[in-house]
Amino acid sequence: MLVALLLSAGARAQDSVAAGNGESYWGPILPVADSLTTTSTTRGMPLWEATLVWPFRVITFPIVVVGTGIAAGVEVLDESKIIPWIAERLRPRPGPLGVHADFTAGGLTGLGAAITGEYTGLFGPTNRGRLAGGTSTTGHRRVNAGVSFQAGARGRLEFAAGYRMRPNARYFGLGPGTSPDDESFYRQESAWGGGSYTHTFGLVEATGEIFWSSVGTRGPPDEDDPPLPEQFAGSIPTGFGEYSTGVSVGLGLAHVELDRSGRATRGGARRARVWHFSNRDESDLDFWTFRLEAEQLVPLWYRYHTLALRGVVAWIDITTTDAVPFQRLMTNRTPDALRGFDSFRWRDRGIVILSAEYRWPIWANKNAEAIGLDFYLLGDVGQVFRNADDIGGSNLTTSIGAGVRLGNVAGLLARLELAWSEEGVQLRLQSDHMFQFFKRSLYHGREPSAHR
Amino acid sequence: MRTGNRIGVTAIAAAVLAGGDGPLRDAPVAWYEDDRRHVPEAPAERRVNVMRDGLEETLYRPLGRLVNPGRLIRRIGTIFGGDHVPRAANINALDEVPNSTWFTNRMGLFPMSPEQVARGPTRSAGPDRGAPLVVVSAKTEGVTPGFNVRDARGDVYVVKFDPRGFLGMTSAAGVITGRILHAAGYNVPEDFVIEFDRQDLLLADGVEFTDLAGVQRVMTDDDLDAILNAVDRLPDGRWLALASRFLEGTPIGPFSWTGRRKDDPNDRVPHEDRRELRGLRVLTSWLCHFDAKQGNTLDVYVEDAGARFVRHYLIDFASTLGAGAGIDGPFPTACFEYQFDFGASLGRVVTLGLREDPWRRVERPADLPAIGYFESTEFDPGAFKPLNPNTTFANVTDRDGYWAAKIVSAFTDEQLEAVVAEGRYRDAAAAAWIVRMLAARRDAVARHWFDRVPPLDYFNHDGGTVRFRDLGVERGIYSASGTRYRARVSATTPRRRTANETDWLELEATTVDLRALRPADPAQLPFAAVKVQVNRGRGWSRSTTAYMALASGRVVAVER
Questions:
Q1: Any long-range contacts for A9-17 (C-beta under 8 Å, 24+ apart)?
Q2: CA neighbours within 13 Å on the CB side: how many for A312?
Q3: CA A16, CA B110: separation in Å to the nearest integer?
Q4: Phi/psi at B103 (nearest 5 deg)?
Q5: Chain A residues in contact with B9 (beta carbon < 8 A)
Q6: Does the distance separating the beta carbons of B51 and A38 come in below 8 Å?
Q7: CA atoms B2, B4, B9, B10: torsion sign
Q8: Which of B255, B250, B252 is nearest to B186 (CA)?
Q9: B98 and A52: CB-CB below 8 Å?
Q10: What ipTM, to 2 d.p.?
Q11: Structure pTM?
């Protein structure tokens, strides 16, 4: 009986606590029926605050209306499944067919967009086919296609072809000492096609390639002023107004120990390549191109804090008496960019560039491995040259800058960078790598008008 | 006082509830908010678009708070001891939150047994397994698949699974956190961890669902098998899941973290001014409940004692205790950063990446797969951030934080062990880890807020002696040795104008003798004010003042 009473009392105590009454630390709290109830209300703003806040509300009302409109628009787009539809098409999809969009802003191209589709099951699970095309507001056009086949356990055979039109390529003269005041424009059109075979020996890759290419130049559209023939009326460079057509045969050796992710943090790559170009046009042109590249990623104190270093030197050695058409000379453009300077700002038979980036993550979507933003500080040093003696001194250009990279372990989605040089400021939005040159094969759309 | 008198005292109580600085009255303290008045029609169902909500909470409202001139002035005022926002609007004279449709005082005011805490809101041991669970609906979209079942009693449960690769993690977290929040005082659903075989499930006839191709059709056993095959199983082939009982009443959508539900006449206080919602930030920091979005709340139109009104629930606690209910499972930035944390990102730019973020140092225990990113070393209660900024959480004042920390600190190790057992971890070491982290984080929470507001509380007046409690010492946050108290006493008018104030007097214990106080004019000075401070070796704290009615001996107000 006693036990039953105790249990009953215990149960009542439990029920009362669940209901928020009983013997509390403040003393007894009676059940609601026996207790005081109250009506909570909020108090208005004190006068001092109202005199500040109400004018503020009036002033910011238009902003609030616009903001509310945007938010409502987002809701409508989401509820009508438009945003999920777009997201579904942009996200990486499992299966053999992948499509992704590239974009660019700034530089010669202006505002541009491109679409790339890749099929990874072409006559076999390790074969790939790729088709890409892009356009821009300044009239740039490009299209390229390629196929890549597994050839034995360690070999890869690739074939590719492409076309590119630049209606507003720049020309400032030849050599490292040209003036920005001599800026002029011309139209450059190139087409190419060829194949390559790469054999892997552990970390070393040996590549042989052969391709046909043709690069023509002529005057720019009316809006790009001054045209090259006008600015350089007395010294029009060799090759202007003509197509330079020929066949290149190249050999390359690469030592690659780089993590091939979009957000590599360690490892490096070294590559040496040589091409021989022989004409297939009216000229008697025959020349060699040599190119040495090295890249190293140095992991720093925290994860994804990385120092990225890159160096490249390339030069042309002429074996005939004909001069190399200017459209086949070395010039500063992606990936051999001197950030802070216009693309095509310098041009000559050789180019040397050292680039460095210190990168660190500033945002990650929940997880360090997920999509995130890396901030980076950059510095470029480089120049074009005719002879080795030209390298150094006042011929060297320097630029510094900062940027953000949006990407994840699967790849780089975009980079936005601002670079300063003595010639001004360059803002670029791009979706390709400055570093990691393993994606610069013919298959990936490399334009070989100049051997790079 | 009977129900018939309740309305009559409401007006008085409204003044009493104004809390802290209203005129003193020798009247009972209000412990109930009058928000259960009959609402004949259910308020309209409220729908929240997650994307719009995220945009507003992440961008618009933080910007609004940043440039609001009133808030700026108040922010400056914090240098002089003020609050950055107006004080909570629903506190009573003792600086406590009255019981309401939002909150019921439990752990904060009453001793509770470990069994009570562990039992939480449950009225049974879970779904009645006397017969197969009948699948009455299913979902294939969303982060994890799941379905609804009806048990032998006729109760309907939502059955949710852990993300693949994290068996037992979110289901345990969901149950444990729900029980803890219930003990703290919030309304939560009845959640259970269940295990079942395939033969324990029966598909009802004509269940319609939308398949992965987006086609709506009648569900088959193959579809049910496909859902089950998409989740992990226990080693014995059984399934483990969280079953959440449907709430009684009519769901009318989530409540907002700002403003009021305009079509609910009982909803009078802007939610960002409700102390229990502000204080929830402290509990969510303790529990690492980062997914405290609107969508994880629910208003339900209920009938109780003959009246129909809206009751406000917190739901879905799977993303707590370091677990993550997303497809990728737990992630380390949870509770450290917003999903889009502009301030943190800017800070990393400015510091050139030379400062390591604390979340990068957080790791999951290697040998406990059921445990997510739940630790105590890097845990900073003041730095907690949910997935998205939250307007109400941004309004937490020190006093709101103290109020919630008082509840958190009341959980004993025994209570935590009992409640963690409800999570049914298969590895005892995992349960022990959660208990240990909860205890360590509890102490960190208490220390953080008790350092800001001295935990001198629960004043009682008996026979001319005022007794109070030092929750910091009682709950093991501070050492008793080296802790000193002092008090000064004065007679007070109802408008809190003091007279005959004594000098500070160091106390031998947490008691103050009022018998020496002899106001010359008791009619003009009918109250006594007892101002107490504590010194733990770092100087005297700010004051906590309790007001006593000399005539009745009643404690009528507390100021912090």
A1: A14/B113, A14/B116, A17/B106, A17/B110, A17/B112, A17/B116
A2: 30
A3: 10
A4: -150, 140
A5: 36-37
A6: no
A7: positive
A8: B255
A9: no
A10: 0.86
A11: 0.83
* Residue contact B6–A40, C-beta within 8 A: no
Under 8 Å between Cβ of B100 and B90: yes
Tokens of A335: 């990936």
Chain B CB contacts of A372 under 8 Å are none
Chain B nearest CA to A259, separation (Å): 21
A67/chain B closest Cα distance in angstroms: 8
Integer Cα distance of A435 and A311 in angstroms: 10
Token couple for B52: 């719009």
Give me the tens of pLDDT residue by residue for chain A, a chain 452 residues long. 444 444 444 455 556 677 778 889 998 888 887 777 777 777 778 899 899 999 999 999 999 999 999 999 999 998 888 887 777 666 655 556 677 777 777 777 788 888 888 888 778 888 889 898 999 988 899 999 999 998 888 999 999 999 999 998 999 999 998 999 999 999 999 999 999 999 999 889 999 999 999 999 999 888 888 999 999 988 889 889 989 999 999 999 999 887 666 677 788 889 999 999 998 888 888 899 999 999 998 989 887 888 999 999 999 998 776 688 999 999 998 788 899 998 899 999 999 999 999 999 898 877 666 778 889 999 999 999 988 888 888 899 999 999 998 877 667 778 899 999 999 998 888 777 666 655 568 888 888 877 77
* Token pair of B213 as six digits: 């191709």
* Assigned token pair, B504: 């500070």
Q: How many residues does chain B have?
A: 560
Quote helix, strand, coil % in chain B, to nearest 5: 30, 20, 50
Task: Pick B268's closest partner by Cβ from A41, A71, A363.
Answer: A41
Shortest distance, CA A63 to any CA of chain B (angstroms)? 10
Amino acid letter for position A27: G
Collect all residues of chain A within an 8 Å Cβ-Cβ radius of residue B358. none
What tokens does B38 get? Answer: 């009959």
Give the minimum alpha-carbon distance from A307 to chain B in angstroms, rounded to a whole number. Answer: 12
**Structure tokens that stand for B245 in this block:** 């009982």
Per DSSP bridges, beta strands A97-104 and A37-38 are: unpaired
Which residues are A186's β-sheet partners? A169
Residues of chain B found within 8 Å of residue A74, distances taken between Cβ atoms: 49, 51-52, 55
Q: For residue B268, which residues of chain A lie inside 8 Å, CB to CB?
A: 39-42
Task: Please tell me whether residue A274 adopts helix, strand or coil conformation.
Answer: strand
Q: Which helix (H) or strand (E) holds B157?
A: strand B156-160
**What would the two tokens of residue A413 be?**
């989605």
